[in-house]
Amino acid sequence: MHGEESLLQDIGLSIIFATVLSHIARVLKQPLILGYIIGGAMLGKEMGFELVTNEASIELISEIGLILLLFIIGLEINLAELAKMGKAMFTLGILQFTLSVAFVYSVFPFFGLSIGSEKFDLLYIAVALSLSSTLIVVKLLQDKVEINTLSGKLTVGVLVFQDIWAILFMGVQPNLNNPEILKILTSVGIIVLLIAFSFSVSRYVLAKLYKACASSPELILLTSIMWCFLVCGIAGKVGLSKEMGALVAGMSIAAFPYGADVISKLIGIRDFFVTLFFVALGLKVPLPSLEVIGLSAAIIALMLFVRMITIAPVIIKLNKGVRNGFLTALNLAQISEFSLVILALGAGFEHITPKLQAVILTSTIIASVLSTYIIMFNHNIAATFERLLARVGISDQTEEASQADKAGHGGHGDGMVRDIIVLGYFRIARAFVEYLEDLSPSLIKRIIIADYNPAFKEELTNKGFQWAYADLAHPDSLSHIGLHDASMVICTISDSFLKGTNNNRLLSTLSKLAPNAKIILTSDEPGEAKKLVADGAQKVIIPGVITGEFLYDYISRGMRNNE
Fold first, then answer.
1. Which protein family is it in (predicted)?
2. What is the 3 state secondary structure string of 381-406?
3. CB hemisphere CA count around 221 (13 angstroms)
4. Which are the contacts of 59, defined by CB distance < 8 A and separation ≥ 6?
5. Which residue from 292, 441, 470, 491 has the fewest beta carbons nearer than 10 Å?
6. The pTM is what?
7. 2-390: which CATH number, 3.40.50.1220, 3.30.70.1450, 1.10.3210.10, 1.20.1530.20?
8. Could you report the per-residue pLDDT of 111-145, keeping only the tens digit for each?
């Protein structure tokens, strides 16, 4: 009983300190994660009041949060979408890790930093700095509603590959002193078998089970969690990590129609456990010395540099866009929780020194906090890098801008007068495109769709639309797309999803660049919509109002028909 009371007390203190510190962080406009980590540090024996006596139990509970997070990630991974990226995603996933490990392994000795004397220290540093934090990245991208953007998909794709690399390395770890190719191939084979088993069972057993209990949401949720921990247990038994099992479990049922419902019910539970994960991380924070802080700063700087040179150039070369290249690199600018697991295993095998563990842990925590700011302002930072590259002739818009200049006003090189310009290719714009294809295909020849994401260029061009590069946050990129002679300019993106600007500033810019055009904008709030109309917008779309009108008309018609 004493042990149970101690555990309950430790959990209670962890939640209290995390909550209080996160409220302070919110008031100071700092990331909530910072509050969780500081709360853990204050509870620990290294820097705090030694209030938590059962650190191992807190860490074990926090691991559940990591497992649930990876399960949800698996549920959100659309394999069909990743497959569409095909060669690009596969190439990026391979090159990011291999180039990063090779670069750190080759360059780190020239820093003159002394961390340890074990023969595998350098290898562990290279691997640790090549992995990014799935937990932090996915949580922050979900908060910013960027998980389904191209850069978000590339980011998640890289994280999936990194998880696979991490699992492969953990399979090799016990044999580093005497590496055998057969054991390495065995580990790879086990991963393939786990994936095949999970997808087979989900298709032929779980599908029928879900159908049988479809009328009971609680049972669907319970069945999903059961499946998650079952695959985790199997993964653990065959020598893989439980985290890898959770990811595979989620991916194997992602195609089921109940996936979104499971995610919505699990998010609250996940956030509770994830909070404990960061508290547990804070509990481990050692009392920092000047030497450890200096080493950590150097390691973080190296990690940031490596992300830029191993991710952005590859994405740019694969024609996924300069902006997307830098956004993906910035999103991945932290050190993974997997790195801490790998280092802990390495210490158990006596591959690394305790000093290296302390330095990487400190680096991980500092990088985790720094990363929240980097992702928060990722579009502004990426735009700065984009402008710097544009000065040396590397730009997404160069080709489209030159085509527009050659074609003359409104022509855009295909002989058609395209006087209707749609800014941004997001949800409403995609639905609009589908309606045009079905109901008014002749109108397609009058439309230019301007977006900063070149991934949609081929798709739209094949349908007969004109695609043009445009970054809505930067007016100079809008001047090349024929706005001056446009009869109508439509922005279907509300302020909630616009990055680096808002509809007020956009209206001011469009009024100057397209003086004769009717300007149609999108807003989430009726009050803001009225202001935009007063400032000169011809029409403002309010998605919520339109949905309400549709529901009213639909229900009213149904009631009249039943009378």
1. Belongs to the monovalent cation:proton antiporter 2 (CPA2) transporter (TC 2.A.37) family.
2. HHHHHHHHHHCCCCCCCHHHHHHHHH
3. 13
4. 280, 283
5. 441
6. 0.65
7. 1.20.1530.20
8. 766 665 557 888 899 999 999 988 788 878 877 76
